[in-house]
Specification:
Two copies of one chain form a homodimer. By secondary structure, chain A is of the alpha/beta class. Helix content of chain A is about 45%, strand content about 10%. Chain A is built from 18 helices and 13 strands. The N and C termini of chain A lie far apart (about 50 Å). The model of chain A has no long low-confidence stretch (mean pLDDT about 95). Chains A and B meet through helix 1, helix 9 and helix 10 of A and helix 1, helix 9 and helix 10 of B. Chains A, B: Belongs to the NAPRTase family.
Chain lengths: ~425, ~425
């Protein structure tokens, strides 16, 4: 038995590309749910998505080689959904429902490919934009983020010897497992992986998902990553994102339409989905105004995902609102997903236990926590706050206000107009770490 | 490129034996140094070596399968020194000296094989004895211990899934690296690996040795493991062990010869070796009597290895003695090797710094510290205090008194006689952990 597989060794040392994204299913599930609606209702809308690095101290264009980035983006553009993947999307049960994707949509999806990209450097950062139909450009969000984050990890790891790498991953594994053991104390908790976009790498996300599957068992409800859900027989989880209200708002013609737009999106959504997919994301233009102006039927939706307020304050505000509207919070669902880690998860769980149903979408601090793991170059492994946001829709600027002004995006004049329409109440500035 | 090397996979899953000891060089260097003298001076002496499990709560015969143990011992008996190994022994420089092994000895060694063993179960423990010529049986000590310790690890690991195994080793690596980072603060410290006998496994010892090599650089002076020294270009380290005074004492005909025997051994040793190999192991029959009765030339030896007293007390006692004998401790060497871990190493180092030269032989807590690493079955991975001691020489019982009565071995009547001859002063009972 030869000790070295010579062919493999030669292959490994001469390959041209180690692709980061190898499947179009390597994306978040909500992208597919939104895509079906975007394709169905907003087929002719153009939307531009743009990379935004909120961690301005990290100069991405200095850390990541442009040719490597282009090679990865180009590779992602060669991908198509495979037959196996199409069959699985058509045949799998999502959120308890068979055939959640309609045959017409799947027929279109079969020929989907990622559209072109625009890439250049400015002030040490990458300008990365995706122009075109919304139903094409929206699909870049997750692979673009995953590619940039993993290229950044690779650049940091390149300087390390085999031993430093071994210790780095050993420590990172030990760290995840400490978290697993803390979460194990709460067998009734419900946690899922929301860490695709900010992951250290694909293989590391897979390790983390498998760790949670083995480590917390029933408490682990699934992953937002569709490929990992398929490959590991987990539930694919996720609902909708800010891009829906942002684009629909950008398309409005006046302030009254703008004010009504957050609910118009929900009306469109509920024609497609029901049950646990009826989750409101209330903070696109401020949760306070959203709740104040919401039609009563919004309180009939299954739950809310407060995404830019601290979990306990954000959750309590929604519980109060359900009570005001005569609904029983104990039958409702709160999904937390903003910058969670074990501490915040545990605190929110203990606070809300018995009062409301809860689920935790654990992202960056699950799949990219390498704090103090590397013997050197630790800073270069620290996760950054990188997003890929819709910036224009049919030529109009797209805006997000958020409950946290640090998370606001968009044209300044438009932000001012939106603040006038929706009000500024209860917005609290908080540092955005990830 | 096929993803699975099918031939390797089939081979891996059908093999009969994964040998623990694969080379006769996989032993401690002092064994070879002692062997040359035993073969030269005591060629016709018989000595029996026996396994002694001082951790009686662990029932080895219940944890380790007898057939597996026999298969490993039998495999070790098939080994010969390879040509490459013989050339290296002849050509390498040890302790700054070329040709430390004489051609006659090497000619004999070339045909060496481990002698037969006697194995049976009693009261949940293994009785494992090696009878025959001292120059044959002595060579079983390290492989026998390494085999039993690794079989015990394997038995503990067998119950774990792939994920638990991954986390266990990740944690163990992270743990070693924490120790490395603490030791790095003292670049002048001198540490070597003495962990062959109690290692978790061969591969793990190799990992630990490579970790120290990369992690503390010049502060890592080498390993007692001859195979690892050869393979990783490190110094092979070690001097002599208790079996020398124990056998020589057992061969004496009366109390006066017995009293003189510890020095007779040293006289024989210094005919073979010099320099940093002139290290006194003073505690075989109690350090106090050894120092009191020592001829003056013993104070000319390079150093001492106090092996059964706490480092600081044990070291201070020897420093005082050097001063009494008019020697300058600053020119002398103390080697510490008894149950060390980072705490004790650091404390002793800071205490003796500037007063005496020091070296630390770090054993069990380097190569077998899996405390709190496994998600389950942790107890079964805890290192035990297992030794393989000479018990008879030419039919007479062999005795070790030690400075710690917990480490005494041998026939009770003989222990009483030895205590009468050497005295009991300054012996302190202390728990033996490893």
């Amino acid at each position: 038995m030869p000790k070295t597989d010579i062919a493999r060794r030669v292959y490994n040392h001469t390959w041209k590309l180690d692709p980061i994204v190898r499947s179009l299913l390597d994306t978040d599930f909500y992208k597919l749910l939104m895509l079906q609606m975007i394709w169905g209702v907003y087929r002719d809308v153009d939307a531009t998505f743009s990379l935004i690095n909120r961690t301005t101290s990290v100069k991405l264009a200095e850390e990541i080689d442009e040719q490597e980035l282009r090679a990865q983006l180009d590779h992602a553009r060669t991908l198509r959904f495979s037959k196996k993947e199409m069959i699985w999307l058509a045949g799998n049960t999502f959120y308890g429902r068979k055939q959640i994707f309609e045959p017409d949509f799947l027929n279109w999806l079969e020929n989907f490919r990622l559209p072109e990209y625009e890439l250049y450097k400015r002030d040490g950062q990458y300008e990365l934009h995706f122009h075109g139909r919304w139903h094409d450009t929206t699909m870049w969000e997750i692979p673009a983020l995953a590619i940039i984050n993993e290229l950044r990890s690779r650049a940091a790891l390149r300087a390390m010897g085999p031993f430093a790498l071994d210790v780095t991953y050993a420590r990172a594994k030990a760290k995840v497992w400490e978290k697993v053991e803390r979460l194990r104390k709460h067998p009734e908790i419900r946690i899922s992986d929301f860490g695709t976009r900010r992951r250290h790498s694909f293989l590391w996300q897979r390790w983390c998902v498998e760790a949670l599957k083995e480590g917390i068992g029933q408490a682990f409800t699934g992953t937002s990553n569709v490929l990992l859900a398929m490959d590991t027989d987990l539930e694919a989880l996720g609902t909708n994102a800010h891009e829906l209200p942002m684009v629909v708002a950008a398309l409005t013609k006046n302030d009254d339409e703008l004010r009504a737009s957050p609910y118009k999106v929900l009306e469109a959504w509920q024609k497609y989905y029901g049950g646990n997919l009826l989750i409101v994301l209330p903070d696109a233009f401020g949760t306070a105004s959203f709740l104040r102006d919401a039609p009563d039927w919004v309180a009939d939706w299954t739950g809310f995902r407060p995404d830019s307020a601290p979990p306990i304050e954000g959750g309590e505000r929604i519980i109060d609102w359900w009570r005001e509207r005569g609904r029983d919070p104990a039958e409702k669902l709160l999904i937390f997903s903003d910058g969670l880690d074990v501490d915040t998860i545990e605190r929110a769980y203990l606070h809300f236990r018995g009062k409301v149903r809860m689920a935790f979408g654990w992202g960056t601090n699950l799949t990219n926590d390498f704090e103090d793991c590397a013997p050197d170059h630790n800073d270069a492994l620290r996760a950054i706050s990188l997003v890929c946001k819709v910036t224009r829709a049919n030529g109009r600027p797209a805006v997000k206000l958020s409950d946290n002004p640090e998370k606001a995006t968009g044209d300044k004049t438009e932000i001012a107009r939106y603040l006038k329409v929706f009000g500024e109440e209860a917005r609290v500035r908080q540092p955005v770490l990830v």
